[in-house]
């Protein structure tokens, strides 16, 4: 006798089994006690699960509404982040500016006690290399990078949030 | 019919009558909570996930295209939020609060609570994906197509998973009930 699979039993329970197969199964169920037990077990699981709908706390809807209202508030400007970026920007620009002269001269002076033993080679740059210009390009590049970070990290998120709040999306 | 009603409510919300969202909250809160609970197995987490899902759905209501039912779209949000939370917390032990089943109540109430307890325990023995699939199947009698839409899995795979999960669930329930009978 052909074994009836659980898939067929489940389809029978769902009412999706074809008419002919349903008829055959019903006939088998009349004489096959083991098959009947298997079907009952699956049926019991179905019945158990169908009746289980849980209830959240009574204040559920109020809490959701409060959360929605809270997230809809005007985004606050991140003053701390803004100040940190401005301070870093000024520090880097000032530092770069004061370092520029030292780099351009390339005049390394060691203390006398050390210079007795160590000879500092005289560095001569090939003609045509404008070190001052290079350092200024780097300085402006750095400033540009900082402004870019300021835009991406602070300004854009802030205005995006503000726009979302205004449009309510 | 419900589909049409939901669409009307959503239209009103988008037109500015945000209070209408409370109707959707009332309508779907039990399902959202049950679905999250089946995945997370922890009432507090499930409640928070269900609440957060409602907030997310509200915020993204404009993006909801009406091709699918609101419930399908919303259940996907609940499922994803619950799975993400579950993975973060790695709550995998069967920490089921049986206290509620010991609450003072009528015999019928206790029987229902016991039934919930066994179902919860049996579901927790399934894999994360099977838990989701089985919850969606029994929750609101979602069709296999709808379950596939929510879980973003193929229908053929849903069919296999559903059969397998239901079989496993029946076996788990059988052994749990047998165990309980022996302890009585």
Description:
The complex is a heterodimer of chains A (169) and B (184). Chain A has 169 residues and is an all-alpha fold. Chain A contains seven helices and no strands. The longest helix of chain A has 37 residues. Chain A is elongated. About 9% of the residues of chain B have low confidence. In chain B, helix 7 packs across helix 8. Chain B is an all-alpha fold and 184 residues long. Chains A and B meet through helix 1, helix 3 and helix 4 of A and helix 2, helix 3, helix 5, helix 6 and helix 8 of B.
N-C termini distance of chain B:
47 Å
Alpha carbon gyration radius of chain B = 18 Å
Identify low-pLDDT runs of chain A: none
Low-confidence stretches of chain B: 91-107
User: Kindly state the mean pLDDT of chain A as a whole number?
Assistant: 76
Oligomer: heterodimer
The N- and C-terminal alpha carbons of chain A lie at a distance of 62 Å
Mean pLDDT of chain B: 80
State the total count of DSSP E strands of chain B. 0
Helix content of chain A: over 70%
Which H/E pattern describes the elements of chain B? HHHHHHHH
- Which protein chains make the most extensive interface, counting residues with beta carbons within 8 Å of the other chain's beta carbons? A-B, 27 and 40 residues
Query: Structural class from helices and strands of chain B?
Result: mainly alpha
How many helices of chain A in DSSP terms?
7
Report the C-alpha radius of gyration of chain A, rounded: 39 Å
Query: In total, how many beta strands of chain A?
Result: 0
Structural class estimated from helices and strands of chain A: mainly alpha
Question: What's the number of helices of chain B?
Answer: 8
Shape of chain A: elongated
